[in-house]
Amino acid sequence: MIADLLKRLMSSEPEALPDADARLALTALLVRVARSDGAYDVAEIDRIDRICATRYGLTTEDARALRREAEDLEAEAPDTVRFTRSIKDAVPYEQRLAVIEALWQVALADGARDQEEDALLRLVSSLLGINDRDSALARQRVDPER
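User: That's the sequence. What structure does it adopt?
Assistant: Structure tokens below.
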């Protein structure tokens, strides 16, 4: 299944993804951001699980299963630039904007802003077609203190 999803995402003309595949691809981005600083910790994993449960109406166990599958996809996905651009072409803007907010939640889950995570979020936002202002507003919604 992961190989098929990657093939569809990386085709020269990606089509809109079915909801289940879009969920998996977007969750893989959450995992990629969480792993970007070299410390994929329990706080980030728990945050990803909660985001998936809330955003997709999943049970706790189903959210964990989605995250585990997304971890596998993230490990096999190509570089962030190609992977994210492919998602941009296959996922509606509203879902991409919502994932930026979720990415900020994951990046800030450990209570610290990390330069690697910030840089990756700027890159991912741009590649997803989300401007800096919308990304900053998403971050402020997640963490109004910063």
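The mean pLDDT is 85.
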